[in-house]
Amino acid sequence: MNQSQREFLDALLETASPSGFESPSQRVWVEYVSEYADEIRTDDYGNAVAVLDGNDTSVALAGHSDEIGFIVREIEDDGYIRIARIGGSDRTVSQGQHVHIHTDDGPVSGVIGQTAIHLRDPEDESVQDIDEQHVDIGVEDGDEVAKLVERGDPITFQQTVSELEGDRIAARGLDNRVGIWAAAEGFRRAAEHDPDATVYAVSTVQEEVGLQGAKMVGFDLDPDVAIATDVTHATDEPGTPGNKRTGVELGEGPAVTRGSASHPNVVAAVRDVAAEQAIDIQLEATGIRTGTDADAFYTSRSGIPSLNLGIPNRYMHTPVEMLDLADLDATAELLGQFAARAGDYEYAVDIGR
Fold this sequence. Notes:
Layout: H1 3-14, H2 23-33, E1 39-42, E2 48-52, E3 55-64, E4 69-75, E5 81-86, H3 91-94, E6 98-103, E7 106-112, E8 134-136, H4 142-146, E9 154-157, E10 162-163, E11 168-171, H5 174-192, E12 197-204, H6 212-221, E13 225-233, E14 255-258, H7 264-276, E15 282-285, H8 294-297, E16 306-313, E17 321-324, H9 325-341
Parallel strand pairs: 3-12, 3-13, 13-16, 14-15
Antiparallel strand pairs: 1-2, 2-12, 4-5, 4-9, 5-8, 6-7, 6-9, 7-8, 10-11, 11-17, 14-16
Helix pairs in contact: 1-5, 5-9, 7-9
């Protein structure tokens, strides 16, 4: 990963983009990818698409730009702010964290309060639900809060990128700014090969609240094949229960999912490209649903042959998500190489008629 690519990744990770409030992150993404695109499209909800013009075969390389977070639910008279979830925020990791409330006038700093261990009932170690937790911005009363914050303002953890050993980093919101980084980088690398196919790089919105952006984009673009790149659980850490282990490990390459949304011919094509280009991949079973934009793409219109490509991620939906940069770079390379060859494969299922 060169300096420009790493600066792009860091810019995405440092830009807050909770579901429904993705515009700042989308601007960062569009600025980067527009250098390589023949056209940039956006829709009314902020989905962004970069287009590389080619022939009638079309391939979409997609990720989602939104992250989980919180939202201001109520401002109390005593100056505390009650919150609600945006997406699947984890109540067990939220208390005691620094946060930013993103207002029209800029971020307001606060903390999600946690009663000191000395004052808590030692017989009760239960964790409060999100709607029972509060943000403290340090003011005296609700009138002071109301001068700074409005009901409906989004909230994210204050968390910068941490450099770990080797090629590993930790940050909030790797889910899924790394997916849109890979989509943009795969698009750039595909452009270097002058592909015959039309290639779309896609950065969707509102995946964390129901795959909403992918539903819009899938209907609008109707590509011949779509790859949704998202994080997937690296289950090689000691806290993973045995019945939840998938065999996916950090540092072993992107995970090609098999089952439900992942079209068998797309799986075969991507595996073929990975073998041809000596790109290490892992396999992951998703028998019912992937929980990613692939679930929306493959049911769009009359069905879009799709694949969920997973970037291994430890500690998902926490402020300390972790990945190996080698996995991320391999994901981008696989996307680029596949897009360059997308027109060489047949995606319709042969049922022997």
